[in-house]
Amino acid sequence: MLGVEVYDQEVLEHGVLQQIDKAIGEAAEGRLLHDAAETVDQAEWEDVGPCTSPPKPPAANHLEQIKPQTDANEDIDRKLDSAKEENCNKEQEFKKMKTKQKHLQNVGEDEAPDDRKVAAAVG
């Protein structure tokens, strides 16, 4: 023989159509996964909110200034301690939100090249 292979046209077309269907299915599945991840990211962004500046300036300086005046009054002293603790908690929460915001920004940047692959596979 001459080394030439002969294919049945219908079998060839069927094989090509299966490959196309598979590629479209994979692209659609990738798009669904991307959309689901984007929805989760959006929910996290809403949770973080516009985290652009720290909470109000720390009240610790002001609290320390009036501390000597309140030593005689235990109730005021407890309230000051509570305010200090609350201020500290808010600062920690702000730091966590900034870290989460940076993480979400990095996740968005990492996913951008994948969008082009999905568009190329579908297009």
Give a verbal description of the structure:
- The structure is a single chain.
- By secondary structure, this protein is an all-alpha fold.
- It is built from three helices and no strands.
- Helix 2 runs antiparallel to helix 3.
- The protein is rod-shaped, with a radius of gyration of 30 Å.
- The relative contact order is 0.12.
- Residues 75-96, 114-123 have a biased composition (Basic and acidic residues).
- Residues 43-123 are annotated as: Disordered.
Features of the shown structure:
123 residues; mainly alpha; rod-shaped
Based on CA atoms alone, the radius of gyration comes out at: 30 Å
Report the major sheet.
none
Strand content: under 5%
List the uncertain runs.
none
Number of helices: 3
Biased composition (Basic and acidic residues): 75-96, 114-123
Region (Disordered): 43-123
Detail the topology: elements first, then pairings:
Layout: H1 9-48, H2 60-70, H3 74-122
Helix pairs in contact: 1-3, 2-3
Quick rundown:
Residues 43-123 are annotated as: Disordered. This protein is mainly α.
